[in-house]
Specification:
- The protein has helices at 5-10, 12-18, 35-43, 57-70, 86-96, 112-118, 130-138, 160-171, 186-194, 204-207, 216-224, 251-268, 274-283, 288-293, 318-334; strands spanning 24-26, 47-51, 75-80, 100-104, 122-126, 143-147, 153-154, 176-180, 199-202, 230-232, 245-248.
- Helix 3 (35-43) packs parallel to helix 4 (57-70).
- It folds into two domains: 5-211 and 317-334, TIM Barrel; 216-308, no CATH class.
- It has 15 helices and eleven strands.
- Strands 1-2-3-4-5-6-8-9 form an eight-stranded parallel β-barrel, surrounded by seven helices.
- The chain is globular and about 65 Å long.
- The structure holds flavin mononucleotide (FMN).
- Flavin mononucleotide (FMN) binds at residues 27-30, 32, 51, 53, 78, 104, 147, 150-153, 180-183, 201-205, 207, 304-306, 308.
- One of its GO terms (molecular function) is dioxygenase activity.
């Protein structure tokens, strides 16, 4: 009997689906989830996911090939649905025989799910509402990730605990549901498994693992931060929409508020048109995650992090994190 038998039993449908030892996904993180972290996660028994983000098909091609050279375990590719070359990216996944494609960032455009299924890969989708989840699972989604607002990066308005209570009783029996957002320890994993989830997805907990190529400054900012430092971007003016992103507060977040006020004033004074105003807001953060992760600019870059960041204190190898999560889950289940 395995060391983690209670946990792996509850994860069975998830591990069968992913082809892994543990149903723990490391959610795709732009600039962070590249060959090194992804292969480390998969080699440690979890499921790594390459973040395609804004990559071109050629870059994705290189990244998948490089990841394959580092692991022979299953891993996935996360594609953003509004990428202008989505179908070309899917073709790259087909060329490499990628087994799982995660579609993030909105409702998959017509034909995309079909194109993925055509080469035999599984499709993992996100859904912010139960109605949309049911629709996506009916129209080809093989598994669903529900992600609460505790998570790092782009977020919805509802917490993980509420999403879990709303979605799991309705879907868990007939569908594969993974829970994400705010998970920092195995006890939380155990509780979502008991509610019917087949696995979980973590981002923040793995972002600063030893194998992560994130800049030293980015990692230090994570280890210094408390849960309350991981704040959401605030919209100042109803005319200027802001997509909420959870990141560590820094000079950039203050400047973003100031920028919105400045642009709103220019709008009031008739100095700029609405389109230009909205574009200025939208473009403020362009390249900001890259600045923080790759260049180590933690002042003006975007240090995307979830609320579980407060539980991270030091750099640890992925395999150690994975074992710790499994052990905590197992102990929690054993005590019940
Ligand atoms: C630095 C960072 C970058 C992220 N980038 C992406 C992304 O490019 N695409 C995506 O679907 N999710 C992205 N996410 C979300 C993660 O995949 C994952 O769902 C989330 O981190 C889980 O919640 P947690 O941070 O509370 O563990 C990002 C998260 C972080 C922390």
């Amino acid at each position: 009997m395995s060391q983690f038998s209670k946990t792996t039993e509850l994860m069975r449908r998830g591990t069968d689906f992913l082809g892994t030892d543990y149903a723990i996904l490391c959610g795709a993180m732009s600039w962070v989830s590249e060959r090194n972290l992804v292969s480390a996660i998969s080699n440690a028994g979890g499921f790594g996911v390459i973040a395609c983000g804004a990559m071109t098909p050629d870059l994705l091609d290189t990244e998948i090939a490089a990841t394959k050279a580092l692991t022979d375990k299953p891993f996935g590719v996360n594609l953003i649905t509004m990428h202008p070359q989505l179908l070309d990216l899917i073709a790259v996944c087909a060329k490499h025989g990628v087994t799982h494609v995660v579609l993030a960032g909105g409702i998959p455009p017509k034909g995309s799910v079909e194109a993925i299924k055509e080469f035999g890969a599984k499709v993992i989708v996100f859904a912010p509402t139960l109605a949309l989840a049911k629709k996506l699972l009916r129209s080809g989604g093989d598994a669903l990730v529900i992600e609460g607002m505790e998570a790092g990066g782009h977020i919805g308005p509802v917490s993980t605990s509420v999403l879990a209570q709303e979605f799991l009783p309705a879907l868990a029996e007939d569908h594969l549901v993974f829970v994400a957002g705010g998970i920092g320890r195995g006890e939380a994993i155990a509780s979502y498994l008991e509610m019917g989830a087949v696995g979980v997805q973590l981002g923040t907990r793995f972002a600063c693992a030893t194998e992560s190529i994130a800049h030293e400054n980015f990692k230090k900012a994570f280890f210094r931060a408390n849960a309350r430092d991981a704040i959401t971007s605030v919209q100042v003016d109803p005319r200027l929409p802001v997509i909420p992103v959870r990141a560590l507060k820094n000079k950039g977040s203050e400047e973003f508020t100031a920028k919105q006020i400045e642009v709103a004033k220019m709008l009031d004074a008739g100095e700029i048109e609405m389109g230009e105003a909205q574009l200025q807001i939208e473009h403020f953060w362009a390249g900001a995650l890259r600045r923080a992760v790759v260049d180590g600019d933690v002042e003006s870059g975007s240090i995307m992090a979830g609320q579980s960041v407060g539980m991270l204190k030091t750099e640890e190898p992925v395999a150690d994190i994975m074992q710790e999560l499994m052990m905590q889950s197992e102990e929690a289940l054993g005590g019940r």
